[in-house]
Amino acid sequence: MTLAPSLEVPARHRLGSPGLRRVNLALFAAGLTTFMSLYCTQALLPELSDGFGVSPARASLLVSLATGAVALAVIPVSSLSERYGRTRVMAVSSAASALVGLLIPVCSTFAQLAAVRTVQGLALAGVPAVAMAYLAEEVDGAHLGGAMGRYVAGTGIGGVLGRLVPGIVTDFAGWRWALAVTGLLALAFTVAFWLLLPPSRFFRPSRVGYRPLLAHLADPGLRRLYLVAFTVMAGFVTVYNFLTYRLLDAPFHLPQAVVGLIAVMNVAGSAASARAGVLADRSGRRRVLAGALLLAAAGLLLTLPPVLPLVALGLLVFTVGFFAAHAVASGWVGRRASSARAQASALYLCAYYLGSSVGGTAGGVAFEHGHWDGTGFYVLALLAAGLAAAAGMPGPVLSGRLVGRLRR
């Protein structure tokens, strides 16, 4: 008698498995290359302003154009990944953004530089738009929070390197070489990402359309998570944009080189994001998310008195709270959406980057009219809105049911 061969269903990556280690390393490298590229011009805005003879406000477009392009592209790119696959879209996106980044040092006019940064932002969107959906599909649910936290840690450290590496190199060789070195590092991390990323085993192609987006927006839990994304990123960008002005002015009068080092705080935030993901798996997402938002608010309050050690400690606590909240909320999106996860994650990222642009601009109005106290109370209001959204999260629901209803 001949026994029919058994079809073994592959298991999702679990803690301690070689597959999860490769996933963690690959997505960590993806976070590094994406956010190095996204923020590589931020530390060089004064040099770029002088080099091209443009105002500081116009020079800042080199950051906002890239982040704005990411916000516009994440939803259509995520829809493409539902049809063509997660790994394929991430690989093409990371390769395109790394190659476009190598064109930045050879731009001869500000208009060329702005155009290249916009194209780079569009190319960059593929990795953040799809990474969360890939993790939700390939990693065991009991360990998803930890994996998501490690990816967010990579994005945080990438943001630090994107500010520190150009800032250091430009003192020795100028801004063109600074951006060239950053581009080459981003390319190296991209190659590591390609080599390490395991193929998708649970992805199933689906029809691309707008109905899944409507289904996700109809889920009250996902809407609340999108509000958390908008508010926490608006507050984070506001603090890091305008605390610099406060530290350069009275009563601190810190030199620019010292003020630029505040980006190092993101390292602590990256470590906190990985830990927060693990805590969310063990203790519950709602509890950890609310605790992270309260921690960020406590840190912000510490920055209000004009005492430098308190400001430094407050910024550290605030940063840890922000990264922890982002890690938990982004992981919760992939966990809650049972289908069209890439589009669910893309809506989260769209809200996240809209918070950066819209909320950050509103933070500038608060700073101009109320100085740092006004800015602090503005950010506290944002955190309060995020906390209310987190506290009201409903119980589990399968978004796939909503998708099915809309398709019928």
Describe, in plain words, how this protein is organized in 3D.
The protein is mainly α and 408 residues long. The protein folds into 2 domains: 16-198, MFS general substrate transporter like domains (Growth Hormone, Chain: A); 210-397, Growth Hormone, Chain: A (Up-down Bundle). The chain contains 17 helices and no strands. Helix 7 (126-138) crosses helix 16 and helix 8 (144-173) runs antiparallel to helix 13. The protein is globular, with a radius of gyration of 21 Å. Residues 1-7 and 397-408 have low confidence and may be disordered.
Quick summary:
This protein is mainly α and 408 residues long. It has helices at 18-38, 45-52, 56-59, 61-84, 86-101, 110-124, 126-138, 144-173, 175-196, 211-218, 220-248, 256-259, 265-283, 285-302, 308-336, 341-391, 399-407.
Structural class: mainly alpha
CATH topology group of the largest domain? Growth Hormone, Chain: A
Q: Unreliable stretches, pLDDT < 50, 5 or more residues?
A: 1-7, 397-408
The count of domains is 2
Question: Helix and strand string, N-terminal first?
Answer: HHHHHHHHHHHHHHHHH
Percent of residues in helices comes to: over 70%
- What can be said about the biggest beta sheet? none
Strand segment tally: 0
What is the alpha-carbon Rg in Å? 21 Å
CATH top level assignment of the largest domain? Mainly Alpha
- Overall geometric form: globular
Topology, pairings included?
Layout: H1 18-38, H2 45-52, H3 56-59, H4 61-84, H5 86-101, H6 110-124, H7 126-138, H8 144-173, H9 175-196, H10 211-218, H11 220-248, H12 256-259, H13 265-283, H14 285-302, H15 308-336, H16 341-391, H17 399-407
